[in-house]
Amino acid sequence: MNKNFKILSALALAGITAITSAFMFGCGKSKTSNKGNAIVRLNEVTRSVFYAPMYVAISQGFFEQNGIDIDLQTGEPD
Length: 78
Hints:
- The protein folds into two domains: 1-28; 31-78, no CATH class.
- By secondary structure, the protein is an alpha+beta fold.
- It has helices spanning 2-25, 52-60, 62-65; strands at residues 38-44, 68-74.
- 47% of the residues lie in helices and 18% in strands.
- The radius of gyration is 22 Å and the shape is elongated.
- A two-stranded parallel sheet has the order 1-2.
- Pfam families: NMT1.
């Protein structure tokens, strides 16, 4: 029984590793622009000082330096 337990444990560990790897690396391709950057759509409630760090990061080009194109939109009530 001890030998069977070791084999079962090894198989379970291999299965868990395979499933984890599939989730981490095989979840699909991200949408990219012509430059190869990922496109991220941000929808803010209103223009506000609350979002100041994001505005600074956009104006300083931090997102572009890291391969992210920002599509900034302001939400409106229905």
